[in-house]
Input
Amino acid sequence: MAKDRKIDVVILGLLSHEDLTGYDIKKRLDGAIGFFWKGSFGNIYPALTAMEKEGLVSKKKNSKTGGREKIPYHITKQGIKALQAWLQEEQTSNELRYETLLKLYFGGAADRSLAIRNIQIFEEDVKCNLTVLNMYKDNLEKVLDEEDHIFYYLTVTFGIDTYEAYLKWCAKAKKLLRDG
Output
């Protein structure tokens, strides 16, 4: 497994729950995981190919649905060991990359109204995401007796707390820009 290719562990983690096609993996990344990790077809399929060569995943029997061939992948015993080894690593990378903040950092090069608008756009996105996260939270609270759901719940509540803090910051930032 490539040391710097985190998409590998994302895929292994997803496959540890169920067999998935590359398309299904992308759908999971665009769903709940998308709140804290992104992925594209451009890195999913090369990762699957490399991990298959490394013996971390295997292809299951192909099936055709609607004329398209579906190739589900399955995590191998070696893949489970690699996932568990990564989970035990103490070093983690928690990058924060928000283009809104980058634009705000350089906001002095334009009128304040532009910075305020960028914050409003960010705020609208956060509100939409918060609505979805609260829906996930409500659904997960009904199934917390299942072990995996506790971990999903923890990531969702982290997101809710974080997004609520973002909304509080948005209000303060807009006020400062308007009043200052």
Observations:
- The two ends are 51 Å apart (CA to CA).
- The mean pLDDT is 91.
- The helical segments are 7-15, 22-30, 41-53, 77-88, 99-105, 112-140, 147-179.
